[in-house]
Amino acid sequence: MQRLAMDLRMLSRELSLYLEHQVRISLFGSGVGLSLILGFSFAYACYYMSSIAKKPQLVTGGESFSRFLQDHCPVVTETYYPTVWCWESRGQTLLRPFITSKPPVKYRNELIKTADGGQISLDWFDDDNSKCYMDASTRPTILLLPGLTGTSKESYILHMIHLSEELGYRTTQEGCQPDVDTNSLNRIEFSSNTDKSSSVISTATPRTYCCANTEDLETVIQHVHSLYPSAPFLAAGVSMGGMLLLNYLGKMGPKTPLKAAATFSVGWNTFACSESLEKPLNWLLFNYYLTTCLQSSINKHRHMFVKQIDMDHVMKAKSIREFDKRFTSVMFGYRTIDDYYTDASPNRRLKSVGIPVLCLNSVDDVFSPSHAIPIETAKQNPNVALVLTSYGGHIGFLEGIWPRQSTYMDRVFKQFVQAMVEHGHELSSM
Fold this sequence. Notes:
phospholipid metabolism; 16 helices
């Protein structure tokens, strides 16, 4: 070990001397190394500024919404500068969970009952110290919907809560319950033999994810609105949470308590998403891992599904499509996987959205390929705005040299919700 350490120190010293010699500019040196470094840096900077850093494409269905965003949410028209050393789609997607900070948040948990006897867990950040909205009854409320395997502990959710706190808003999102699978809304259904004197909760038929089924989301929205009917009420959905939110808005039209909504990295066409994720590299980096997460979540309650579903067959699935074909579509009563994917795709319902919605997507997102983004449909609905960046990956949108504290997605979220709370009335008068 000592010999190895000596060799490493000698190698390091020799390398340092070599580099110093290469970049030295003096009467006795040519400066070739420094010239190469400067030349490469200049070429890279030119490439970055001309091909990577670009303004997003803003697609709206009406001039009034476009002018509103330019006036009150200017970030959607500003140049987005992806992290200079990590702008590629997969890099942004993989790096974001590890590099972004996780602000500390103390939640208040609530369990609400559903009509069929189940319960949904919500984590509240009440923001009782809000200086802008000291009256809790009128304090703006943001409902946050995380992605497929996300919870209230996800960094992007924590960032949204932190930004909402800066604005004086309260937030609520799916809660974390032990031994219950994660989905768009964390649901628990209790068996009739639950021992109420015990701290152990017996789960009977836990719901799995299904972004076409909006029943639980409708329950949550009505519940939150009933608690604070005088408070501005908005929602934000990320990835699959955004798909669920858009499907809900498409079904409800203008008949929703929500004042506005925002979505981030939504998969618009489930068929196209699945096809993209099944490409070899994407399958290796993302698809297989997410499939194993889904299998692990339902395997905890395996005994509850064996009468309805061939669980051995489900556990052999190697992709999300195979999992959905063998489990999700069967669980929710679809005749075929194609029927489920058709019903789950929010592009079909975008034309029916009846409140202002901003949708941020990156055209290099492997989870949501650019050719499936419904640009023409968005142009036909005055309530819809698409913000399309050239880079950003899936829930990435990293920017700055060391993108730990904030992302482009964070800035879009903050400016948009603030714009809708403080200036949303201007849209109705335009």
